[in-house]
Amino acid sequence: MKRGEAWRRLPGLVAALATLVLVGGGLVGTRLATAAAAGCQVSYAVSSQWPGGFGANVTITNLGDPVSNWRLTWDFGAGQTVTQLWNGSYTQSGAQVTVTNVSYNGSIPTGGTTSFGFNGTANGSNPVPASFALNGTTCTGGVTPTTPPTPTPPPTTAPPTTPPPATQQPCDIYAAGSTPCVAAHSTTRALYGAYNGPLYQVRRGSDNTTRDIGPLAPGGVANAAAQDSFCAGTTCLITIIYDQSGRGNKLTQAPPGGFSGPAPGGYDNLADATLAPTTVGGHKAYGVYVAPGTGYRNNSTNGIAKGDQPEGMYAILDGTHYNGGCCFDYGNAETNSRDNGNGTMEAIYFGNNKVWGYGAGNGPWIMADLENGLFSGVNQKYNANDPSISHRYLTAIVKGEPNHWAIRGGNAQSGGLSTFYNGVRPNVPGYNPMKKEGAIILGIGGDNSHGARGTFYEGVMTSGYPSDATENAVQANITAAGYR
Fold this sequence. Notes:
- By secondary structure, this protein is mainly β.
- It contains three helices and 31 strands.
- It folds into two domains: 21-138, Immunoglobulin-like (Sandwich); 170-481, Jelly Rolls (Sandwich), CATH 2.60.120.200.
- The chain has helices spanning 170-176, 224-231, 468-481; strands spanning 21-22, 27-28, 40-50, 53-62, 71-75, 81-86, 89-93, 96-100, 113-121, 132-134, 137-138, 181-186, 200-204, 210-213, 236-241, 252-253, 271-272, 277-280, 283-286, 288-290, 296-298, 311-317, 329-333, 346-351, 365-369, 374-375, 394-401, 404-411, 417-423, 439-442, 454-463.
- The strands form seven sheets. Strands 12, 20, 22, 27, 28, 29 and 31 form a seven-stranded antiparallel sheet that branches. A seven-stranded antiparallel sheet has the order 16-21-30-23-24-25-26, with no helix packed on it. The protein has a five-stranded antiparallel sheet with strand order 7-8-5-10-11, with no helix packed on it.
- α1 packs antiparallel against α3 (468-481).
- It is globular.
């Protein structure tokens, strides 16, 4: 804004982590692959299928000695290919797939588990891989068997479904819905149940040293006490908001663009790390307090939607902290920090700016910044179905796919989501098809307009257009998190 792949899943295929079984067709979606020595077991669960593609979740159980890094390999039997994968890194050479851990899930204790998921292509049959190997040792489901297990015929009834992890966080839910997170940002909590890496980094004013702040436990709330101790007696700024998805899409100080920021070199200001205290589940945490002139950005991303590719995003915001400046955004923007024309952005906007568009009442509104327009619906200016909304903790959602997009929102402390718009792209030229560029912004407009204010607690961007059911499950997780 100027200043002032993926697939729609077929109905009924929201399988979460449940195992897909096609009885009579010969496909059983879970195989307990089994080879001794190290000792491991693999559950391979087909979570959804559609013409030409499928989603799967894989759980590794370590039955041997603890491992600090892991590598899982298997061969596809019918020409399947992996197209995207989360909670791991992958390579594929012909039929052979190799998946390795990312920074936060390399350790598996004896009896412990780790999981990852992926989307793939399949033409015709989609058989389950015949075997798996962990760090070079074939998994047999036992530790030191002396004879191979007796083959058993496929079951004639569905086996029990794979139980969900003890703790699921928003990105686990999106992955189960076949729309995995490709960016996950939060200074308040982990957005994956297994995530134990850094959430954000602070720099103190007394000596310019930095410290990463992580969660109290895997999947938990940020360790605010570590920040308080490090920053005692001095000031601290948030220098990095890390990407928990494993794709490296971290947010750092926004560079100059169409507008220059107030910091040296035309960069935007960094947020004061102490100005947005909150509690999550009874634990102290800090949000990102965006004053005018503050902004974060990543112009070189991995996996973010481009062109007319489908995507979704949500953000938890302070619904009482806003203004009419341009533009308090979180989402997809231009990669050169300039206004590149209609349809080159797709980001959540929150505020009461009425220059480009508005909804019912006096605001603030959740709208979509699509560049050269803040859209509250199909019309360029006014759309009556987009209400003023100002919950202290607010869930804001924007999602888009070819000639279709939606705005949803709700109270992040209780209740469900409401849909404020669900329909075709705006009825003005330049937005169908979209021309998204794939940068990520927080607190600013696409051209580095930095006149807005707001507070950000957490947010994600997905590959693919999430279903309402998936978003409803994420909202239930958010309300259960206990923002206060």
